[in-house]
Specification:
Length: 316
């Protein structure tokens, strides 16, 4: 991936992470987040944390998956967030990645404990944390260690704030302020995503409205208007990606050719980048199990991996 533009590299790795959010009591409904995202938002992922972590797949392979995809519970614990009280995690990214990017953690965890932890960091200058007062609300900026957040390519300095039942970790102060605001954005300023509200009921659900750099002729997503991802995770994983396009025939051919290239080249290239061999094996297996179908105006790719297949590929 070393030859990819910065925007594409960041999102390719983010997509890789996402391969591996039922509105539950205490979880912020999608509107409380989506109504605060500006029109420049390009990527939105909703992950039902409680559903995911209580699945048989994660209970059986949690330590192995944690090694590959990052210790999210450890990150939450540092911030005094009780992982078992998290309901949903959102990941968003803007038109100019990493600007406009954020992680939003929603649930019934104790916000006062998180506030106290951030104030402690600021007082002790841990992670060079400093506070910012805006009216009645206090937000923070901190230089978190590289690799603390499960999104490659984000800057070291992150901005943190609290709102009703949610913790926001953003790449810039403007994005943070929009997500902690009491009132949603005006209708004319909100992002318009091409999915119904019930789309977010999947364990993992995502929407990408690709920027022009990715949809120009000969670009990786040439002719694609939008992409959606949904995954159901129980004792295995079923992953579906749907791409809307005016030329399904051409896109189907390109995706099939791309899958072949991944099978041949991803391993050697990823090895050069120092990526864990288990992750390479998992992505290669996932690509090999992907079937591609087309319909009028769309192309869909589906992959199914059993728990045994995932365990075998992620085992040391």
């Amino acid at each position: 991936m070393s030859g990819l533009p910065g925007y594409l590299k960041g999102h390719a790795m983010l997509g890789l992470f996402l391969c591996i959010g039922l509105n539950l009591p205490g979880a912020a409904p999608p509107a409380e987040i989506l109504d605060r995202l500006p029109g420049t938002t390009r990527l939105v992922i909703g992950l039902k944390w409680k559903v995911l972590t209580e699945s048989e797949l994660v209970r059986s392979n949690g330590e192995q998956l944690k090694e590959l995809f990052g210790n999210v519970p450890g990150m939450l614990s540092q911030l005094a967030v009780e992982s078992d009280r998290v309901e949903r995690i959102w990941i968003v990214a803007g038109d100019e990645f990493p600007t406009g990017s954020a992680i939003v953690v929603c649930g019934s965890f104790d916000l006062s404990r998180v506030q106290a932890r951030l104030a402690e960091w600021s007082r002790d200058r841990r992670f060079a944390t400093r506070s910012n007062r805006d009216g009645a609300r206090t937000t923070y900026a901190a230089d978190l260690p590289v690799g603390s957040l499960p999104i490659p390519g984000v800057p070291t300095t992150t901005h943190l704030g609290l709102a009703e039942e949610r913790l926001i970790i953003a790449t810039d102060r403007e994005t943070l302020n929009a997500l902690v605001a009491k009132s949603p954005l005006p209708e004319s300023s909100k992002v318009k995503l091409p999915v119904p509200a019930q789309f977010w009921d999947s364990t993992v659900a995502g929407v990408l409205v690709p920027p022009a750099v990715l949809t120009a002729p000969d670009a990786v997503l040439a002719g694609v208007n939008s992409a959606t991802l949904d995954a159901s995770i129980t004792n295995g994983m079923t992953l579906r990606v749907r791409l809307t396009t005016a030329n399904a025939d051409s896109l189907t051919s390109r995706l099939a050719a791309g899958a072949e290239q991944v099978q041949k080249l991803f391993g050697p290239l990823a090895t050069q980048q120092g990526i864990d061999p288990r992750l390479i094996a998992l992505v290669t297996e996932l690509t090999g199990k992907t079937s591609i179908s087309k319909s009028e105006g769309a192309v869909e790719a589906t992959a199914i991996l059993t728990a045994d297949e995932i365990a075998k590929k992620t085992k040391k």
